[in-house]
Amino acid sequence: MRLDRTEPAEHHYWSASSSTPTTRSLVRIVLLGKTGSGKSNLANTIFGEKLFTTNHTPNSGTSECQAETRCVNERSITLIDTPGFFDAGRSEEEMKPKILRCITECAPGPHAFLIVLKVEKFTEHEQAVITKICQYFTEDALKYAVIVFTHGDQLPKGMKIEDFVSQNENLSDLMKKCGGRCHIMDNKYWKNKQQNSYRSNLVQVDELLNTIDKMVVENKGCYTNRVLQEVEKEIQREEEIIKQSSGNLPPQEIRNQAKTKVSEKFLIQLAGTGTGALLGAFFGVAVMVRLVLTALCNSRKILCLIRSHWNIFCQIQC
């Protein structure tokens, strides 16, 4: 599917001083990439503990969207691990709830997208993934993107990741679109504690987080658009309802329940909207943003009409 890029990207900045990374603010980071690229292992490496489910079978990979929050180097960070949104052959029925879950988990918007790729020979399949990423990501969304390579042990001795990227035209082009932001990890072999070694996860995690800090400051906060903002408004409405009916639940539990309810509600309201439109809206493609907002608006009008007729019917019966 080719997306129309003749229209500008739909984007807004979620203006809040707390968006700058401090010990008191939350930084939301979404991990994206094909199945088997090492997203879950990368998330565990960043947090320094095994929180995200990993598998090692040929067809393994993250099956559900998973979010975890921890403090890393005086930063409060939420990592959102995703299934292979850019994989070929995924059904609409399978992917739609997972995309919506990702959108609700990162509302009102992520501070960073980590595009996760493996250090390996690039086949047609890998090229297709990069093509899809470039197809869906607007220029504005790419301002919030960082490429992170996994399987760093496959990098030839003495070579830096920038040298590896320069060997592939499509990779080089993607890195330029991401502002030259590129890092490398190895979730299995680079576990040494050396603080001055290029091939050390300790060093690379620190450099990655510094890159994200700088990016957030330059972007004046997190990435957002009207769909993400609409989702956040719905979450806040649900939070108020839960607060009134559930007593003294912890704020995070209230938030989690609200996100689940909104995700389920939007899945019903967007039943006729394709996954391509949802991904396009997530990444700010203007026509897709309008399509999703229109679908939500029409769904609510229908629900209001049904409620109105039901109330009239009840009054007649009484």
At CATH level 3, the topology of the largest domain is: Rossmann fold
Order of helices and strands: EEHEEHEHHEHHEHEHHHH
Total beta strands: 8
For the record, give the distance between the C-alpha atoms at the N and C termini, rounded to a whole number: 53 Å
Strand order of the largest sheet: 3-4-2-5-6-7
Which superfamily, in CATH terms, is the homologous superfamily of the largest domain? Answer: P-loop containing nucleotide triphosphate hydrolases
Specify Rg, calculated over alpha carbons.
21 Å
Using the alpha-carbon principal axes, give the shape.
globular
Written overview of the protein:
Keywords: GTP-binding, Membrane, Nucleotide-binding, Transmembrane, Transmembrane helix. This is AIG1-type G domain-containing protein. Belongs to the TRAFAC class TrmE-Era-EngA-EngB-Septin-like GTPase superfamily. AIG1/Toc34/Toc159-like paraseptin GTPase family. IAN subfamily. The chain crosses the membrane at residues 266-293. The chain has 318 residues and is α/β, with parallel strands linked by helices. It has two domains: 14-223, Rossmann fold (3-Layer(aba) Sandwich), CATH 3.40.50.300; 226-317, no CATH class. It has eleven helices and eight strands. The protein has helices at 39-47, 92-106, 124-136, 139-142, 161-165, 169-177, 201-219, 226-245, 251-269, 275-282, 286-317, and strands spanning 12-14, 26-32, 66-72, 75-81, 112-118, 145-150, 182-184, 222-224. Strands 3-4-2-5-6-7 form a six-stranded mixed β-sheet, with helices on both faces. Strands 1-8 form a two-stranded antiparallel ribbon. A hairpin with a 2-residue loop joins strand 3 (66-72) and strand 4 (75-81). The longest helix is centred in the last third of the chain and has 32 residues, at 286-317. It is globular, with a radius of gyration of 21 Å.
